[in-house]
Amino acid sequence: MIEIDSLCKTFGKLPVLRNLSATLPAGRATAVIGHNGSGKTTLIKCILGMVIPDSGSIKIDDQEIRNQWEYRNRIGYMPQIGRYPDNMRINQVLGMMKDIRGRFQPGLDEELVHKYALGELGKKSMRTLSGGTRQKVSAALAFMFSPDILILDEPTAGLDPVASEILKDKITESKKAGRTILITSHIMSEVEELADDILYLHNGTVGFYKSIAALKEETGEEKISKALATLLK
Amino acid sequence: MLKITKYVVYDILRSKVLILYTAFLGIASMALFNLETDPAKAIISLLSIVMIILPLVSIVFSTTYFYNAYEFMELLVSQPLQRRTIILAQYMGIGLCLVLAYVIGVGIPMLLFAPGEVSVILLFAGIMLTLSFTAFAFLASVLTRDKARGIGVSLLLWFYLAILYDAILIGILYAFNDYPLEKVVIGLAACNPIDLARIMVLLKLDISALMGYTGAVFQEIFGNGLGIAMGFVVLTLWVLLPLWLSVRIFRRKNI
Question: I want to staple A163 with a disulfide (CB 3.0 to 4.6 A). Which of A92, A144, A159, B207 is the partner?
Fold first, then answer.
């Protein structure tokens, strides 16, 4: 469970998060949506401790995360644009992460490494990889340590349809295993497929936070893209 | 921490810039020792190289590396690691490589051709200067997000400490010629790691007799073991202070 309480963050003069509060329950997948620059990535980076909020608190299972680092053992993060050291090879990146995190988890989940055939691409240097292959590496790393919390920032952007399906299956499977999933996406069909709840951010604050079922019922629409359009009118 | 340092060292060794730097230092010191018949003179020439080139290469290389490794740090920051561990591991990796280059390129030839107290002091002074300027580079890098600006700040810092500071010092000495400034000069020299290191080495050479009364005062303060130890303590502070500041800033930085 992730509890976010009155989170504020300003970059220079630009307020990005304004008094944002939400509670993401365990065992559910929450899709964070909103237009570009509405604060989705900043929210994620705050949860990961990459960006330090000006005020407000974030608790993971009642544990305040400020100045903590151990909690990140429980998080698998897939960034929007995976940036890796240019002159490392795929298997070096994978090996390094195992080296750094592996001691905490004995059993590694390497399903995605195999399904994406990253082992065979292992000798390729990160510099030469296409955007999609980088995304595959990011996805494999996010799931590798079987984390309780998965934070996926536009996971399928740039992936080919087959790879995309593999990833979606993996996400659904993780949800069934009772993990907390936070996902951002601009593709509404994907949100419908993967998420239970929708957290709509508008100018850095919560526009609404509802389950998909409630959303459909409220608007009387079959598809959430239509439901959203009705709601945001 | 050592795990990350291992990857940093591995990465630097692959980039060949450091090997070129080691080779340059090695060729320069071998040439000096072979061309000069008097090893003491060769050490003086070597001293100029150590005081100018070493800080310059250390600060520019470290700043560039820090910015180039930004992705690497981004990746690490989202992992279960302390920020302090990440930046210190990075520092240790870069510092270790630069010190190694210096020890191989200058230290070993120096100890072979001119074994003695001066060489040992120059060796350690050079190591401390390398570590100090690597720390300055980290400070400049955590202060600015922009690579070009970071390198600019680093170069300015080097220019100030390696060149401008001496000019200011000499200006002060001339302007206040009539006053007894020896103690002040020592204080001012301690405020610049390069000057401090240079004085410590020069005083171990015979030429300190040429420096007049100031030289005598320096000799009195730095001439004994305690003075040298104090000098190294101050040099250590010049490593720890910028390093501590950069860790402090990095811990609060938005990645």
Answer: A159
